[in-house]
Design brief:
Blueprint: E1 8-12, H1 15-29, E2 34-39, H2 56-63, H3 67-73, E3 77-79, E4 81-85, E5 93-97, H4 110-118, H5 131-135, E6 160-162, H6 165-178, E7 182-185, E8 188-193, E9 200-205, E10 210-212, E11 215-218, E12 235-237, E13 246-252, E14 262-267, E15 270-276, E16 281-287, H7 294-303, E17 314-317, E18 321-323, E19 327-328, E20 331-333, E21 339-340, H8 348-361, H9 370-396, H10 404-411, H11 416-428, H12 441-450, H13 467-487, H14 491-498
Parallel strand pairs: 1-2, 1-11, 2-7, 4-14, 11-20
Antiparallel strand pairs: 3-6, 4-5, 8-9, 9-10, 12-18, 13-16, 13-17, 14-15, 15-16, 18-21, 19-20
Helix pairs in contact: 1-6, 1-8, 4-13
């Protein structure tokens, strides 16, 4: 049977998710498929997703977006990782960096060598062995130089971004429209389903226009206008594991140079984010409404800003989890319409990117093969569940008992998959990445150690190596990283030379 390629795709909803979809589809399908995006200025967007992980560089590179131009357009800064404060204990601080830990020694991952030393009272802080963790608190940043030696930590120096999500959507809209995407201003008031299979036939706008398409992408946010309100797909609720269900967001004036990292500070019943941009600082308080009222949560946020608020705080309500099907019939949910993972590890924009990439890899024709749909849903659910486990780790692996919220987090039951990972790591510092799950070994190691899940022993293979040899390798790694960090320019200096946005 010959394929029947999609001739038309309608995206319902704009914002970051909608315009990322439009840009990627325009790049991949502009010669064969018409793409239309419907959004309403009346509805607006959430627009608080301002921190990313390094994978966004792949998305931008695929579109052919020059990095310096992108950062200028979105008034962005660079990000080397996340600093976590007060999570395991009040007063604790650790860094989850995007780069490598030291240098692996044969088949032995570096953290095992560090652990061997640490168990003997040597080795110091794990953060000393990550260039990201050393450079970020010093306010230093640079991209990987092309002439860096092969074995230099600077040779492969992953970085991400902080940016204004509204400006990114605007930037991608311009890109998309230049490649044939048609934008329609309008509010969807009705969804027409086809008989007898129940697929979406068309959406009807407030002005009466009927927009039909072969395929629909739901980027309508929490409402899930197509995937839920029309197709009644259902939702998997993870509130029992990730209990925060509210966020209050407000930008403030900048105070001093922008740091090349995000700060996540644990509070009495949740946590607060701080995201520095070129023109302002983004702030938010994620909390659990069962343990904290909105007025108190807002007061806590406003009392811990760097500068003067630049607007009124906005409250968001959410339920962590995902749709039972991300792809249902001829409709794919992307972004908040597909589910919500709180922004603790900056995964929201990545999940948009991942959903788009998965869709293009499993691109259907007009027959809508159920085999293709099932594979997409299975992979999407797997990805969400692995990220879920990583987020739960931050809450559950705590020794805090200063509030009912943290006591509950420490005592709650956790998914078996996470319990097994914790048990294996505490036993001997081992972690095995499950297939293509997003967070790699170095991420799990940094958070496990940062949350005080210290292994009882190192890998047995280390005991066959001379102690002096291991100590030499560990000391050399720390010295090389310290030297590389000292040679890097300051973050603000790098931005001034490379990608400073024009003043308003």
């Amino acid at each position: 049977m010959s394929a029947e390629p999609l001739r038309s795709i309608a995206i319902v909803g704009g914002g970051t998710a909608g315009w990322m979809c439009a840009a990627a589809l325009a790049k991949a399908l502009q010669q064969t498929c018409s793409i239309r995006l419907i959004e309403s200025d009346e509805i607006g967007t959430i627009g608080v997703g301002e921190a990313t992980i390094p994978a966004l560089r792949i998305f931008n590179d695929t579109l052919g977006l020059p990095e310096a131009e992108f950062v200028r357009e979105v008034k962005g800064t660079f990000k080397l990782g996340i600093q976590f404060r007060n999570w395991a204990r009040l007063g604790d601080s650790y860094f989850h960096g995007f780069g490598h830990l030291g240098h692996d020694y044969g088949p032995n991952p570096f953290h095992q060598l560090w652990l061997h030393q640490r168990l003997q009272g040597k080795g110091g802080d794990l953060a000393d062995y990550s260039l990201h963790s050393v450079a970020a608190p010093q306010g230093r940043f640079m991209t990987s130089p092309t002439d860096a030696p092969v074995n230099s930590p600077l040779r492969d120096f992953p970085h991400a971004y902080h940016f204004d999500a509204g400006l990114y959507a605007r930037y991608l809209r311009k890109y998309s429209e230049q490649r044939g995407v048609k934008r329609t201003e309008g509010r969807v008031v009705e969804v027409k389903l086809r008989e007898p299979d129940g697929s979406i036939d068309a959406v009807v706008l407030a002005g009466g226009e009927r927009v039909a398409a072969d395929f629909f992408i739901d980027c309508s946010g929490f409402r899930g206008l197509l995937i839920e309100q029309a197709l009644h797909t259902g939702y998997v609720d993870w509130t029992h594991w990730l209990p925060c269900d509210r966020a209050i967001a407000v930008p403030c004036e900048r105070a001093g140079p922008a740091t090349p990292y995000t700060v996540a500070t644990a509070r009495t019943a949740g946590w607060q984010w701080r995201i520095p941009l070129q023109h302002r600082t983004g702030n938010g308080h994620v909390y659990c409404s069962r343990y904290l009222g909105e007025d108190e949560a807002t007061a806590t946020l406003l009392a811990n800003l760097d500068g003067k608020p630049l607007g009124e705080p906005r409250t968001l309500q959410f339920t962590t989890g995902h749709r039972r099907k991300f792809w249902n019939r001829n409709c794919l949910a992307v972004g908040l319409a597909s589910g919500f993972m709180e922004p603790l590890e900056s995964t929201s924009i990545y999940l948009i990117q991942s959903g788009i990439g998965r869709f293009l890899n499993l691109l259907p024709d007009r027959r809508m093969s159920q085999t293709v749909i099932d594979r997409y849903n299975a992979q999407a659910i797997f990805e969400f569940e692995r990220i879920r486990d990583f987020l739960i780790l931050h809450y559950h692996a705590t020794e805090r008992d200063d509030s009912p919220f943290w006591k509950a987090c420490a005592q709650m039951s956790i998914p078996e998959s996470l319990a097994e990972n914790i048990a294996l790591f505490v036993d001997s510092g081992r972690f095995f990445r499950n297939a293509e799950e997003m967070f790699a070994v170095t991420s799990w190691v940094q958070v496990m150690i940062g949350q005080r899940k210290m292994p009882r022993a190192c890998h047995p293979a280390l005991y066959s190596l001379p102690d002096a040899e291991i100590e030499k390798v560990v000391q050399l790694a720390r010295q090389v990283i310290a030297n590389c960090a000292a040679a890097m320019p300051m973050h603000e200096q790098f931005i001034d030379r490379y990608c400073r946005a024009a003043p308003n």
